[in-house]
Design brief:
single chain; about 280 residues; alpha+beta; four-stranded antiparallel beta sheet; globular
């Protein structure tokens, strides 16, 4: 997929903002309260966007994608950064679980291993709000990844922003938007996403000090109000839209339930996809 336009998704012949009247925009476009929450809180959640049948279909797609990924892993280069294990295939960078490197933590991108997931990135339930958020009549995928958050061993993600990882790319950071599709029920017990509400308004915040190669990419939260920390529990099929400047993270999963999720980032126009090159969160 190179890019998506209103005409591509709705069947309209033109893609100017004055003509965003397709059914999918009416059904899935950005609402007034959502726009306000995105501006003030840095995120909003849509409940029940995808049915349980949709979720089941997507989880089956994950299994199919994993079969392709496993073939690549046979020839993958393995290495560690700050004591954490990684694998690099020709198509993706893979974070492995520190507590059990046989388990996958994150695969970015994941869509290269699944046609269904590649097609999902065109779904109006994910794409329609992006036209308003990115302020563009054409949007494209900047990157996508799959978070596994395995039962019992799914490790924590320290507080961080996404924007600093992409600052070197030249992408219009203030017009990017992340969307997370929950494929399992997520609660505090299995490591649901947690955010510093409103932290996106401060721009890129200072990173932590330390000798680690990636330590500067973790957010120094000393100046942030802990009262603004908000867990975001979700049901399978819920969708979260959030700013790349929003400080977020998650605790470890000590439960018997995984907390799997697809995360995609969209950009205005038909820009190039993000190429990791080096491991990131």
């Amino acid at each position: 997929m190179k890019f998506m336009s209103i005409s591509h998704l709705s069947g309209l012949r033109q893609a100017s903002n004055s003509q965003l009247q397709g059914k999918f925009v009416r059904d899935w476009g950005l609402g007034t309260s959502e726009s306000l929450n995105y501006m003030t809180k840095g995120f909003f959640v849509r409940r029940g966007c995808f049915s349980l049948n949709d979720v089941d279909w997507l989880l089956k797609s994950v299994k199919q994608g994993m079969a392709s990924l496993q073939k690549d892993l046979v020839h993958a280069k393995t290495f560690s950064v700050d004591g954490k294990p990684y694998a690099q295939t020709e198509r993706s960078t893979i974070q492995l679980e520190p507590g059990d490197p046989s388990l996958l933590r994150v695969v970015e991108p994941f869509s290269v291993y699944s046609r269904r997931f590649s097609s999902l990135l065109n779904d109006p339930r994910l794409v329609a709000p992006m036209f308003d958020i990115t302020r563009s009549s054409i949007v494209s995928v900047f990157t996508d990844k799959f978070n596994f958050k395995s039962a019992f061993l799914g490790s924590a993600f320290d507080w961080h922003q996404d924007a600093p990882y992409w600052a070197h790319t030249g992408a219009p950071l203030n017009r990017l938007c992340n969307v997370l599709l929950a494929l399992d029920n997520s609660t505090e017990s299995n490591g649901c996403l947690r955010v510093y509400t409103g932290s996106h308004t401060a721009g890129i915040l200072p990173g932590k000090g330390g000798e680690g190669q990636l330590s500067s990419l973790f957010t120094d939260t000393e100046g942030l109000d802990t009262e603004s920390i908000e867990p975001i529990p979700m049901r399978a099929g819920d969708v979260l839209f959030f700013s790349p400047y929003l400080v977020h993270g998650s605790r470890a999963n000590h439960s018997r339930q995984p907390r799997r999720a697809l995360v995609a980032t969209y950009q205005p126009g038909d820009g190039s996809r993000f190429h990791i090159g080096n491991p990131i969160l």
